[in-house]
Amino acid sequence: MDYRRRVAVITGASSGIGRQVALDFAARGASVVLVARRAEMLADVARACVAAGGTALSLAGDVAAEGFVEDAVARALAEFGRLDVVVNNAGIPKHKQFFDVTPRDVEYTLRVNLVAPARLIVAALPAMLRQGEGWVVNVSSVAGKLPPPREAVYAASKFGLTGLTEGLWLDLEGSNVHAAVIHVGPIDTEIWQKTDEPTAFHGHKSPPSAVSRAIFRAIERRKHEVWVPGRMRLAWWLRICLPGVFRSGAARWDPVPREAIQAARDRASDGRAAARE
After folding, report:
1. Residues 83 and 147 in one domain
2. pLDDT in 10s for each residue of the chain, 277 residues
């Protein structure tokens, strides 16, 4: 596939997976529209993309902000005149005992991980239809197939993103706009330093380049879903075929501490007492 006339919008492009994907598009001669919150880091990625042989436009902002992703599409079209690929990569973790989850946690996680990608696709689709082709790649998570302990809200957002993509497979049929989802397992990025609570996972983490390769494989071979690493699919089959075994194993791997439950009960009791007063 010749990427030299292609334009790709990549969210979460300031570091990790997004940065690697942007550099790999640029190295193929594509124009990249880089979207992320951290302006200085985004500018560094833009310079690296130009050095790699591409053209870059950086747009700093929060994908959850009203109108931001729509403006990013408008800026991309104004600058380059077309839009070929959307890579919805921006996301936030939410690793937290559900007893401690707040309404703000729920709302913002869903806005970043699910609502913003959906709105970006809606905004980009008319340009792709005018061109007669396009690609939408949603970077989801294995958590969108297998909910880990202490990640109910995060899993909900990723289940939603995966479901959105699977719906697009049907709704975009015949349009020549291809939708793909990447089920990402443990990847060596800074997201592990951004969790609310320490994680139980201490195993191998794949490099961001593994996800980037999966994205290009999905685009070039028109694959609908790719697992990174591929062995994670086996865990999903275990969840489907032996759900009780999956739940038992997950509970033993990262159990809910009794003190967390008791603390939640104490807070609930205090709340009832305050309400009666």
Report:
1. yes
2. 999 999 999 999 999 999 999 999 999 999 999 999 999 999 999 999 999 999 999 999 999 999 999 999 999 999 999 999 999 999 999 999 999 999 999 999 999 999 999 999 999 999 999 999 999 999 999 999 999 899 999 999 999 999 999 999 999 999 999 999 999 998 878 776 777 777 766 678 789 999 999 999 999 999 999 999 988 899 889 889 999 998 888 888 888 889 999 999 999 998 754 444 4
pTM: 0.92
Six-digit token string for 169:
């497979």
CATH assignment at residue 21: 3.40.50.720
Residues classed as catalytic: 154
The tokens of 27 are what? 């190295």
Report yes or no: 144 and 187 within 8 Å, Cβ to Cβ: no
HSE-CB of 249 using CA atoms within 13 angstroms:
10
Residues 182 and 273 in one domain: no
